[in-house]
Design a protein that fits this description.
By secondary structure, this protein is α/β, with parallel strands linked by helices. The protein has helices spanning 11-39, 159-172, 176-187, 193-202, 204-218, 259-266, 293-305, 311-327, 334-353, 359-370, 389-405, 411-429, 434-442; strands at residues 133-135, 142-144, 223-233, 236-244, 249-254, 273-276, 288-291.
């Protein structure tokens, strides 16, 4: 130990130094106690919190591995023959493969069938439009023929090219540079990054009109599910919201995460049931509220990981039982479902009434009491989901888009993406492929079911 240099201090200076050291020791002791308490808490992962699996880190491999079960062998399968082939080629045998005898004149029947599938070489079709005219013999004015409506002057790229570019960019996260390269190498089409951006920008008005129509459809729904995630616009963090009903999907990118964003979308409409997580901005937007039980189960798991072996496991088992019942609602009669709903409420009340000793269990108990009336709405309404998985699946492609492209350089680009996701998401839940939906939009044929 290195001794400090000896400094002559007066009595008052020594007293002041001792007081400062005592205060420092007290602060350090409090910090040590805080760190020691933190050492006893489990690390938050995707299984016990809202963190995504990508945030679990290398420690994820420390979890106990489940014993591997021997899977039964499955029967082999092959691709079925297409029902409507474009072309059929029939081959007749000319000689016997065993003895070489001529069989060209013999009667033969089909012994084997197989399909050969190939893509033709795709090249752009260029149509030169020449508009003829002259000078009028009556008044001397010049005249010119009108261009066809489908190939009017302006951008040389037709709706098929623009639809494909939007589909590859927004559905498959292909950046502008790679889009330009793919067009050149796959299709023999030379198009610059600026031309791609201009093509997207021209679709903005049609996407905005379609989004307004989708919004009007959304606010007539009885049940609406919602979620939100971050996005990057011009280097700034903004929020992408998604609202889903049984017939419409609406994406909206806004600078704020506040409740006012959802209220602006609803425009005074109050659905019977609102499905979401427990974020404050998602509350009191419907007559009833079904919270996502998957999120609740993660909090329950965190309490179990913290050491609660009594209250949290019972809550986990009860919620899992309720979710299993919810999956069988289509097979249950109304009376049976009502009995299950009453059982769910009564058992939850009994679990909450029991004494809880563990600190993590007490924290969980407070959370359960706060959301007590929003757990089992799905058991009294067959159309309400027990989790908000539908919203998370819908918004997941935009999260991948953000990670791949790092967001948007401009606000109009963000609005184009939101409009595209609204149109294709609505088409998907109505049984229509994304590319067909965006092609219809650019062709001016967009219509809601």
């Amino acid at each position: 130990m290195v001794l400090p240099p000896r400094i002559r201090l007066s009595e008052s200076e020594k007293d002041a130094l001792l007081l400062d050291q005592a205060a420092l020791i007290e602060r350090l002791a409090a910090r040590i106690a805080e760190l020691e308490a933190a050492l006893g808490k489990p690390r938050k992962t995707s299984s016990n919190s809202h963190l995504p699996p990508s945030k679990d880190g290398p420690g994820r491999g420390d979890r106990p591995k489940r014993p591997r079960r021997k899977r039964p062998s499955r029967p082999g399968k092959s691709r079925p023959l297409t029902e409507t082939p474009d072309k059929t080629e029939r081959r007749m045998a000319s000689e016997c493969g065993h003895c070489g005898m001529d069989v060209s004149g013999a009667r033969q029947r089909c012994r084997q069938r197989h399909d050969h599938i190939e893509l033709p070489i795709i090249r752009p079709v260029v149509t030169r439009v020449e508009l003829f005219g002259g000078r009028c013999g009556g008044w001397g004015h010049r005249y010119k023929a009108q261009a066809p409506e489908t190939i009017a002057p302006g951008s040389p790229f037709g709706p098929g090219i623009r639809s494909l570019l939007m589909y590859l960019h927004h559905s498959h996260h292909v950046g502008f540079e790679r889009l330009s390269r793919m067009a050149r190498e796959l299709f023999g089409l030379t198009i610059s990054e600026g031309a791609i951006a201009n093509a997207f920008r021209r679709a903005g008005a049609d996407l905005a009109t379609a989004s307004e129509a989708i919004k009007r459809k959304l606010v007539t729904a009885r049940i609406i599910a919602s979620d939100e995630t971050t996005t990057r616009v011009d280097g700034m963090t903004q929020w992408q919201w998604v609202f889903i009903s049984d017939k419409a999907v609406l994406h909206k990118i806004a600078p704020r995460r506040a409740k006012s964003v959802a209220e602006d979308v609803l425009a005074g409409h109050r659905p019977d049931v609102w499905v979401s997580d427990r974020y404050a901005g998602q509350q009191e937007l419907g007559s009833r509220h079904q919270v996502c039980l998957a999120h609740v189960l993660r909090d329950v798991q965190y309490a179990i990981d913290s050491g609660d072996t009594v209250f949290a496991p019972r809550i986990r088992d009860h919620l899992r039982w309720a979710i299993r019942v919810g999956k069988r609602r289509s097979q249950l009669k109304d009376g049976t479902l009502s009995a299950y709903a009453a059982k769910a409420d009564n058992k939850l009340d009994a679990l909450m009434a029991a004494p809880v000793a563990h600190p993590a269990g007490k924290t969980l108990l407070k959370q359960v009491k706060a959301w007590r009336t929003k757990f089992f709405v799905f058991m009294t309404d067959r159309d309400v989901p027990a989790t908000n998985n539908i919203s998370e699946r819908e918004i997941r492609p935009s999260v991948i888009f953000r990670k791949v492209t790092n967001g948007f350089r401009s606000d109009w680009g963000a609005q184009i993406h939101a409009g595209y996701r609204s149109v294709t998401g609505t088409a998907r839940i109505n049984g229509k492929p994304a590319f067909d939906a965006i092609r219809d939009l650019i062709d001016g044929k967009f219509a809601l079911a």
